[in-house]
Design brief:
This protein has about 250 residues and is α/β, with parallel strands linked by helices. The protein has helices at about 1-10, 15-20, 45-50, 70-75, 80-85, 115-130, 155-170, 175-190, 220-235; strands at about 25-30, 60-65, 90-95, 135-140, 175, 195-200, 210-220. The protein has a five-stranded parallel beta sheet with strand order 2-1-3-4-5, covered by helices on one side. A two-stranded antiparallel sheet has the order 6-7.
Amino acid sequence: MKYLLLLSFYFGLTQAQAAEITPVKLHLVGDSTMSDKPNLAYPERGWGQLLPQFLLPQLTVVNHAANGRSTKRFLDEGRWQLLLSELGNGDYVLIQFGHNDSKQSDPARYAAFDSDYQTFLTQFIADVRSRGATPMLASSICRRNFAADGSLKRDLADYANAAAKVAREAKVSFFDLQQHSCDFWQQLGKDASQPYFIQVPAGLYQKFPDGKVDNTHLTLQGAGKIAQFFVQDLKLRQHPLANYVYRELL
């Protein structure tokens, strides 16, 4: 009863509404743009780290995403097998890869968008379903990579399209975070989009004494925006997990 009263007070639910919401887990699988960043003194955040701020506590977010991982590396390192060992019937799994799969110079991570990348995603979907859980796919977020004419280079479009193709064929929910983020950065433009990405001044962090310009990884503001895109998409398509979204603004 005390728990229901707390839900009613903090989340604006009636006790009857709170009692009807079934606890469930959402597992996140991806790379550094999604992963938790334990060093809160440094400004980088993953959007999966911010996602719980939009959700009711009955939806537990388990973030398996890790820096530098691709579909291939996540599988080869045993991280995927670990996730499967923790997966329960009725859980959800959101899979988002592409940034590191595209690194052709690194055989440990490279997975071609028109072959291995799709094969691994298809395997992941089958594995999740075999355990009574629900798989979902998301495309990689857009880098802040503007051309001289002010247009945004969509250098991960092939991977986004490949993920969409796998989602259609496997009939799973697809969240096009690439499209949402690319359109948003383009709308803002080069200067106004800068606060969403890491721009470290010189002489502030020991790890980066000369400063750092990073147009791939997100600040708190950027991670919050991507998480917002995801929950808004849940509500727009009336996905079952939309019942656990209690706000769309941080």
